[in-house]
Design brief:
The chain is of the alpha+beta class. It is built from two helices and two strands; from the N terminus they run E-E-H-H. The chain is globular.
Amino acid sequence: MPDSTFQAQPLQPGDFYFTPEGYMVFTEQYHRRRGNCCGNGCRHCPWPKKDSATKGKQ
């Protein structure tokens, strides 16, 4: 279920870039403006990873 507190905003310059493979990657700037972690393991997430996501993976 989506987080009901998140309000979509238009993308701004510096919010993302494209990889050589064509994937759009959000930057730390975007994540900080978003305001919280989405839990998807984003490459530039400024928030610490949660221990529960890594437990059991060895």
